């Protein structure tokens, strides 16, 4: 599958923020991609820390997910 889109290639890494209130997602050159905050005060969720980490893991996996979907589409010849 060919695309004209541009994006930051993976792998993307997940690390806790400096004050441990969330997670940084950075590329292999340590350049920030996103920050996912763990903020129960903002969301009111009891398990916000767990949910924040799961969301951060999903975002960090984006390049791998895109690659897997691209390969699947190519194999199914849906282009």
Q: Could you characterize the architecture of this molecule?
A:
- With 79 residues, the chain is an alpha+beta fold.
- It is 41% helix and 19% strand.
- It has a three-stranded antiparallel sheet, covered by helices on one side.
- Strand 1 (13-16) and strand 2 (22-26) form a beta hairpin.
- It starts with 12 loop residues before the first strand and ends with a helix.
- The mean pLDDT is 84.
Topology:
Elements: E1 13-16, E2 22-26, E3 32-37, H1 40-43, H2 48-60, H3 62-76
Antiparallel strand pairs: 1-2, 2-3
Please outline what is shown here.
The protein has 79 residues and is of the alpha+beta class.
State the order of secondary-structure elements, H for helix, E for strand.
EEEHHH
Mean pLDDT: 84
Number of helices: 3
Number of strands: 3
Shape: elongated
Based on secondary structure, the structural category is: alpha+beta
- In this structure, how is the largest beta sheet organized? 3 strands, antiparallel
Helix content: 40-55%
Please state the CA-atom Rg, rounded to the nearest Å.
Answer: 16 Å
Unreliable stretches (pLDDT < 50, length at least 5) are none
β-sheet strand percentage: 15-25%
Q: Walk across the major sheet and give the strand order.
A: 1-2-3
Distance between the termini: 6 Å
